[in-house]
Specification:
524 residues; alpha/beta; Rossmann fold; UDP-N-acetylmuramoyl-L-alanine:D-glutamate ligase; 2 domains; 10-stranded mixed sheet; 7-stranded parallel sheet; 43% helix
């Protein structure tokens, strides 16, 4: 699914209205119905009642089109039999166009309306919110930049402390549509109904913390109208992953299912090699060969009986002599990954140089391999024209690679990931609460799966192994990165459904990968 900036969405809407002749009032009416349907779905699914009659709704409306959407929602809820109160944070005369028309239509119903001009309505608002079954946030839409006005902030805090179910229209008020930034406060919604296409801010910055469940409604803008808009940012969906999954043939065997080389582990970090290997095996690799330091090789071998473990010189860490082993085992390999638990031994840098310069198969760099690259930034230039490259940094590693602060990375996640993917001619996977996968051609993909349970040691190693496995199965690099990230998050979501957002381990995430894939893949 495409994801857009606020400016792109406005251009799409303008084109739909002026070029294709879709009335703006129809778009607003469709937006209102989408919100009403989500309110019905939530309230009636969680209650024994079959109708909304008698339930209470509070709509906080601003003066713009977002407020107009809210007034249309209010009118429909009145017709559904709800007791509706609109709190209008503008003078009646300030509403224009479609918003003004929806104000007049609402005023013709039995719904209540109060203009909020200052602190004197605070008690009234607090009482209405305390009694509300649902609170609709229609204060600000995708045009907001910067912080909310002071008076609005105070009322938003009241919303965030109210017991009712909160739903935001298009984007929670206070969240910037392009960045996800929240400057002081914003509405914390349990659900957000966004229109046309989802906005960047729902996936960036603090946006995911405020938007709750995201529902995308096309509001009657046909897909065909979006095809020539030059949109290069997407959110991954089940159908994207389904089409990328490799098809296994009845005559397939370990050779046809791919050979992958994993260069990983050091003294005290043998578990990282084991977890990455487990992620690869659970993602269907045919042959996994692990190259690790001689001093820990037996430990890794004992934990991964299905893999072949090759001893390379080095008691505690792999050193410059490891290249001969890696080079020999990489013959006929479809992919190589290195970094998990490798250690930051500078003696390994010449080996990293040889790998980047000489291997034509796709190479994945993670963890300590990235830290070694950060120490020698010119290393990435060796890969140009040699073969595909995937980098999988977390924000700290990305900051070291870019020689900037972690705050700079987090503040500019999308821009910096795309820019570096183009500059490094690599697929870049910037891990986080919403992982971003960027391609050298400038496309970017938001991953919607995963949860805070992944914030535990070893889950990144599992991801590296999983990407290695998809590459070994001859999935193209960009698709392999998307497959690995999406299914890794999906596996964690399945575990969270059983255990909640904490307490499951990286090993359990790896073991859940086949089930996560099986649910999505076409049935044969």
């Amino acid at each position: 699914m495409r994801v857009v900036s606020a400016e792109q969405m406005r251009q799409i809407e303008e084109k739909a209205i002026h070029h294709y002749g879709i009335p703006s009032l129809l778009l607003m009416e469709n937006a209102a119905w989408a919100v009403v349907e989500e309110i019905r779905r939530n309230l009636l699914n969680h209650q024994e009642q079959r109708e909304l009659s008698g339930r209470k709704a509070v709509i906080l409306a601003g003066k713009g089109n977002n407020g107009g959407d809210g007034l249309a929602v209010a009118r429909h809820l009145v017709f559904q039999g709800m007791d509706v109160t609109v709190l209008l944070f503008a003078g009646l005369e300030e509403l224009k166009g479609d918003a003004a028309l929806n104000l007049r239509l609402y005023q013709g119903t039995s719904g209540k309306l109060f203009e909020i001009k200052g602190q004197e309505q605070r008690r009234l608002t607090r009482l209405a919110l305390a009694q509300a079954d649902v609170v609709v946030d229609a204060l600000y839409g995708i045009g907001l930049r910067g912080a909310l006005p002071g008076l609005i902030e105070e009322y938003v805090d009241e919303v965030n402390h109210s017991p009712g179910w909160v739903i935001s229209i298009d984007i929670p008020s206070g969240v910037e549509a392009n960045t996800g930034n929240v400057y002081r406060t914003a509405v914390r919604a349990q659900a957000t109904v966004t229109f046309g296409l989802p906005k960047w801010g729902l996936f960036l910055g603090e946006g995911p913390d405020y938007c709750g469940r995201v529902i995308v409604d096309p509001i009657s803008i046909p897909d065909a109208y979006l095809e020539d808009e030059g949109i290069s940012t997407f959110v991954l969906m089940d159908e994207d992953i389904r089409t990328s999954l490799p098809v296994r043939q009845l005559k397939g065997h370990k050779g046809t299912h791919g050979k992958g080389i994993l260069v990983a582990g050091s003294k005290g970090m043998s578990g990282a090699a084991v977890l990455a290997g487990r992620g690869a095996l659970r993602s269907g690799i045919g042959l996994l060969q692990i190259v690790t330091a001689e001093g820990i090789a037996n430990d890794v071998d004992a934990c991964l009986t299905e893999a072949t473990v090759w001893h390379a010189p080095g008691e505690d860490y792999l050193n410059e002599e490891a290249w001969s082993v890696i080079n020999r085992q990489s013959r006929n390999a479809q992919a190589l990954a290195m970094g998990p638990g490798l250690g930051q031994n500078l003696q390994f840098i010449p080996v990293l140089e040889e790998i980047l310069r000489n291997l034509s198969c796709p190479v994945v760099l993670d963890a300590d391999a990235l830290n070694l690259v950060a120490a020698e930034p010119s290393l990435l230039g060796l890969r140009s024209g040699r073969g595909p490259l995937i980098l999988t940094p977390h924000p700290g590693e990305m900051a070291r690679l870019c020689q900037c602060s972690v705050e700079d990375v987090e503040r500019n996640r999308l821009d910096i990931t795309v820019a570096k993917a183009v500059e490094w001619e690599a697929v870049v996977v910037l891990k986080g609460s919403v992982t971003i996968i960027a391609s050298p051609d400038g496309r970017a993909f938001f991953n919607p799966t995963g949860n805070p349970g992944l914030g535990t040691g070893g889950t990144g190693d599992v991801l590296t192994g999983s990407i290695l496995a998809w590459l070994a199965q001859r999935v193209p690099p960009l698709e392999a990165a998307c497959l690995g990230v999406y299914l890794h998050g999906r596996a964690a979501d399945d575990l969270a459904n059983e255990y909640g957002w904490s307490g499951f381990t990286a090993s359990e995430v790896a073991d859940q990968l086949p089930k996560a894939r099986h649910v999505i893949e076409p049935k044969r």
